[in-house]
Amino acid sequence: MPRIIVQKFGGTSVGDTSRIRRAAARAVAAQQDGAQVVMVVSARGKKTDELVSLAGEFEVDPPAREMDMLLATGEQESVALMAMALREAGAEAVSLTGGQIGISTDDTYGKARIRAISTDRLKEHLDAGRIVVAAGFQGVSDSGDITTLGRGGSDLTAAALAAVLGAERCEIYTDVPGVFTVDPRIEPAACKLDRIGYDEMLELASLGAGVMHSRSIEFAGKYGVPVVVRSSLTDEPGTLITRAGVPKRPVTGLALVRDAARVTLAGLPDRPGVMAEIFRRMADRAIPLDMVVQDLSVQGIAEVSFTVPQEDLAGALAAAKSAVDALDGAEVTVGTDLAKISAVGAGMPDRPGVAAKMFRTLAEIGCNVELVTTSEIKVSCLIARDRADEAIRAVHAAFALDQAADADAGGAPGDDHPLSPQEQRVRTVVEGLQGMEDIVVADVSLDAHQARLSVRPVPDRPGVLADLFEAVAGGPEDDPSTGATVDMIVQNVSHAGHAAISFTVPESEAKYAAELASAPAAAWGEGEVQTDPHVAKLSVTGVGLRSHTGVGLKLFAALAEAQVNVQLIGTSEMRVSVVVAANEGEAAVEAVRGAFGIG
Ligand code: ADP
Ligand code: ASP
Ligand code: MG
């Protein structure tokens, strides 16, 4: 079997003729080295943005079908030019559109999902000694229409082609020398990572690190494709994205979403079905909810907040209003000009000190935190947009991310450490998939021995979160011998200067954690610590759970059906967790397993 390499070149890397020639030379070199080469190319420079604004000259909201027809031309231009450059360099080459390759997608114009890719035509060309130049970002629907995969989607084309061709690796050539601890445009002191695990990269990409499209990492992880991100202008080795090894430090990288908006549904009844009602309306409009925060109810009245990209705000607001009406809720409020900063690291589970340090750092620059959500490997904070850059830089320094360290001490690519049970389950599910980008739900599990603590009301000012979690972590240095083990942390939006914070700990540590938490409350002169010593945490584990709006919907619909009330929610791309009453845990897990067809 010949070795196959996929090389993807982003917009800047094919921006002008000299760059196109340079990219062509890389492909020719790889071919001369004995590999069959598939190039995936993006539209040149800012071409796609130009086309978007051109369309805007005619219609405020152009039909999605016509937009896809238009945007796909950018890539078509690039592939033809690239094929010419390859011929100039003495290679045989053929350019192909998504349709010609046989990338079939669903018909969600603008964010189409790949269903299948036929490889016959590609293989024929490769076996005939040609370099195949594939147009990124596009496919074709069953009805024969051109579709696009979402902005930045050429990465996805590259990962998908590498997966179906069984490529040795997928090389992503871009305008930075690799994946950095944070976007080097925000923090010039950011460090390049030598390698990073799929899970961490997926989380970072989905939390705003624009260097890779998150669905491309979903794909690469599912199919086990090693990805290398490197500069198209230099010969530095770049960053290898592969299966994780043992992380060397608690935080691997930071990500920023600059355009977040918050929607809060207040005065909701505290009963099963509320979340399902909200998620259904959002899923109908294909709006992915980002941070989802449901806080403990007070006197039977609950409140749910979530964030959405600013551009989805109008749709989210309409959906939220109709949900509030249907639920006899009180009102919908909105927060704008917000940003979400997130710290990601496979080394952070159970280390409340990581969250505490992030909170303390934000407090030290006087930055208030509006919402908090966490998952196993990330902490996200919603803050004012105009503080975002400063906040990123401060947190970056606090975790010493400006000092080089191998993010991940795992083995080499193609390394043979055995698949973890989670990876095995993902692979098994993937083998049975109908559509290549279908949801992969690998497991539904229950931890029935958790306790939930809520501290309320707490003052709504910088430093409160830091005080609380430093105390619970056993001090600013996160001392496990005196601290408690914290799992989920949730802070909802404040009212009249007061906020509420909830978190979970193992049942056995409930009393101790409550003692630790009551010290800062005493110092603030307010804040009652309430403990529910018996709650259960149900987790749905898989790949790409947040980008598929249907996952939340299915989960909450199943819980509603089983009459299970949801107390807290935590979401990430790899896991959605909900906290429910301990005596409802078994019923919940059964219902959710049934919904996802897991035995
Ligand atoms: P391409 O056109 O090659 O796909 P993109 O603009 O999509 O390039 O992605 C590269 C950009 O991603 C970089 O210029 C950088 O500013 C940004 N970026 C965001 N987060 C990171 C990160 N963690 N590491 C490296 N680059 C990042
Ligand atoms: N040209 C498309 C975009 O700008 C796809 C890509 O570059 O990956 O979004
Ligand atoms: Mg890109």
Task: Summarize the structure in words.
The protein has 17 helices and 24 strands. The strands form three sheets. A twelve-stranded antiparallel sheet has the order 14-15-13-16-18-17-20-21-19-22-24-23. An eight-stranded mixed sheet has the order 3-6-2-1-9-11-12-10, with helices on both faces. Strands 5-4-7-8 form a four-stranded mixed sheet. Helix 1 (17-32) crosses helix 3 (64-88), helix 11 (352-364) crosses helix 12 and helix 16 (549-561) crosses helix 17. It is globular and about 75 Å long. Bound molecules: adenosine-5'-diphosphate, aspartic acid (ASP) and magnesium ion (MG). Residues 10-11, 42-43, 48, 74, 136-137, 151-155 line the site of aspartic acid (ASP).
Short summary of the structure?
The chain is built from 17 helices and 24 strands. With 599 residues, it is α/β, with parallel strands linked by helices.
Question: Which stretches of 5+ consecutive residues score pLDDT under 50?
Answer: 407-414
Number of helices: 17
In terms of DSSP E residues, the strand content is 25-35%
Bound ligands, named by name, code or SMILES: adenosine-5'-diphosphate, aspartic acid, magnesium ion
Average pLDDT metric:
90
What sort of overall outline do the alpha carbons produce when their principal axes are compared?
Answer: globular
What is the total tally of β strands?
24
Query: How widely separated are the two ends?
Result: 38 Å
Spatially, the strands of the biggest sheet line up as: 14-15-13-16-18-17-20-21-19-22-24-23
Q: What class do helices, strands and sheet pairing give?
A: alpha/beta
